[in-house]
What we know:
seven-stranded parallel sheet; 16% strand; 10 helices; globular; 38% helix; alpha/beta; two-stranded parallel sheet
Amino acid sequence: MRVLVAGATGAVGRPLVPLLLDAGHDVIGLSRSEAGGQWIRAQGAESVQADALDRDGLRRAVESANPDVVVQQLTDLIGGDGAANNRLYRDGTRNLVEAATAAGAGRFIAQSIAFAYEPGATPADEQVPLYVHADPPWRDSVTAIATLEETALAFGDTVVLRLGVLYGPHTWYEPGGAVASALSGEPGAPFIANLTPDDSISSFVHVADAARAVVAALDWPPGPINIVDDEPAAGREWIPVLAAALGAPAPAPMNVKQDWARGASNALARSRGWRPVFPTWRTGFAAQTG
């Protein structure tokens, strides 16, 4: 198949492009910059250049690629600008769906998140509603995610991958990244909301496992599906382990909990044959520095 990856040079796109090539697919990577296009071509893939927020330019680029499948891996997380990321979720996804439709693509795969569910006492499965009634500012992000998913699913044959908190190369959680800076108290480090060692639950997924899920999703039934590891955990558990792996100090634990932070279940993905290479953050965090 001809698979176009929008966000091919991002945290998931970088391991995804070679995986798709190894699986025998023709891969076209979409990037905003010529430097990104050079990286894509160096992997052995084709490249097209466009900004996802440029509706007409994106449509021309996608139509020129003539893809069978369009994969949305679009994020804008540099500097922790939530408003910019939400705009890309809403407007970038809409533009990409319109371009995929115009190009005659048959399937759409979208990146979403597995930590936007309504509050609950157990890890959320895919039937739990999104927490669109959360208090601001979290409501803004959940509303953007809900719009992303609604737009993507309107394409028709769409798989929405609800990813856990991403870690690994080119994420905030890599050695020397934004989390290490924040834990160390470096001036100018971005605010990262989930760095309190409390009772709030998070589910993680390594970028390599997220990329493997995209390849598997080429053959999955449409609809949303959680892509997370096997061990949802409270901040008081995982933050000290991450800090030790990064060589950074761990903050003091606190007896509080964000009501929406409940983690997610990967039972559906496992039932379809997906297995995380890093089934727990306990070994995954250490592997980042090993």
